[in-house]
């Protein structure tokens, strides 16, 4: 019997579907990416400052440290969302009719929300971390006022409203083109034996993002509103366990969706180098549908140490933590490797960043799954092990995808890479891996996360982390400067 | 023990994945048959998928027997009450007999805190969350005498990193108030 080739890895004779510059709204997408680039660089500097302070290289007072921590956390979540939305919109608009007005409205809401959040933190002193765990925002012990709390919560709410508008529009456009969400997910091909051409990867991924983010943002809005009312009327309170469930459902789904949006760049751009188009194979369709269900149900793994949470929820969280690694490792990573292997491609920084991003996502899954084991979480929860694993799949995963997309946009204007770009790439990748490893190493010896002041025996990890973070920042600054300089040159 | 397992598995699998990606990156410039690669990929994908399933099922099954959620343990020699405040622990009693099961009842008077117990080497031996309106119960037997630090592991505001206390595990089995 002759094995059937995996249909997501096509022959070289097939022509890639990609045509540069055909997406509508390119200017707005460039604005999304330009803002993302600047904010990413700024937030990385914030991260470097925190590690340097923990190492004792510089002194940041605890109140300022926790403000920076809050800004770094909420900023990274939001900007990963904005950059990811830029990637998704760029490629999805090739297949469905999206609204540029909504894309602009999201950006306006985002910027308005960011102004409020930054004001709440650096003027009002708000420092309840990005997770704003109920009822901490209303219990500052006089460190920040109710106005600062309100500014933060309304700011995040505004950002959420913008994204909700965007995802309602992607949902509308997908429904208009495909008729129902099942067809857009390729269910007739995955489950019904249909031989019709399945929807392209960008549509499948965007449909999943749309389906998971609408309830996530709605639930986020609920807990933000409850926290806001509680800040002004402390007599109005909600069950703290319920509040935690709401926050982590919202947070977990949203941050995961940033990967799902940004990975569309891998599906669309990498094949232009390898000349092996990335098709929606049956395993691909099944993997995305499974991911969609699992990401909605896996969030209790954030609550393993909340013993009051139902045990069945924790058990489900552990099982799904393991299961959700299967689509990443067995489908996305395998297909990426197959797409590149002996393809005759020539590397540039865009292709290299996109390839590395899948490696970062895959490698980060390993310590994350281990942390998703209840027995291990008992000694790892809220240690630096946690930022260790999420910096691998967010910094080397999502951020590499975003920078890869920026380099792709840059290349479509005729720009080519120079030695500085290549140097930036190696600093970013090697520095990023080493930087995240210092977190993991510190977590393995139980160093807590979110501590402004570290004990002397912990600073060896902080010193190494600071040095590696500096490499990452320099690499990122190269990427950002090259992207913005090219955008400016093209405009003039 | 758990920390060592996590490090070992992460290092081995992480380096394997990095090596695999590096190897493929080096091969990218060569020309190859897409059909052959596609066939090999399909085979590898099935192998990876079922291989992971075969590993995951027993690992999940075994590890779920080690959860800290048992509602009742052996009759505790001591019941400890721990309450989190911004930014201090109120713990009573703080002396524990070695080798005897203890029950630690953890709650909070204000916001969420994390109640983590560190051994004399600075490693976490157990933890739970201190949650408003709830009491989480740890069942633990301290096998080694010494001073165990209690640190807050859930961010709780400006004094989060100052929120520390201690438990003393005595070599004798007596209980002090």
Structure, described:
- The complex is a heterodimer of chains A (492) and B (177).
- Helices cover 72% and strands 0% of the residues of chain A.
- Mean pLDDT of chain A is 92; it is low at 1-22.
- The longest helix of chain A has 35 residues, at 240-274.
- Chain A has 492 residues and is mainly alpha-helical.
- Chain A has helices at 26-55, 62-92, 100-122, 146-178, 181-184, 187-191, 201-232, 240-274, 282-297, 311-323, 325-340, 349-371, 374-380, 385-411, 419-444, 459-491.
- Chain A is globular and about 60 Å long.
- Chain B is α+β, with helices and mostly antiparallel strands and 177 residues long.
- Helices cover 32% and strands 32% of the residues of chain B.
- Chain B is built from two helices and nine strands, in the order H-H-E-E-E-E-E-E-E-E-E.
- Chain B has helices spanning 2-27, 34-63; strands at 78-85, 88-92, 95-97, 101-108, 113-118, 124-130, 136-141, 146-152, 164-170.
- Chain B has a five-stranded mixed beta sheet with strand order 3-9-8-5-6, with no helix packed on it. Chain B has a four-stranded mixed beta sheet with strand order 2-1-4-7, with no helix packed on it.
- In chain B, a hairpin with a 5-residue loop joins strand 5 (113-118) and strand 6.
- The longest helix of chain B is centred in the first third of the chain and has 30 residues, at 34-63.
- The radius of gyration of chain B is 24 Å and the shape is elongated.
- Chain B starts with a helix and ends in a 7-residue tail after the last strand.
- Classes of the chains: A mainly alpha (492), B alpha+beta (177).
- Chains A and B meet through helix 2, helix 8, helix 10, helix 11 and helix 12 of A and helix 1, helix 2, strand 5 and strand 6 of B.
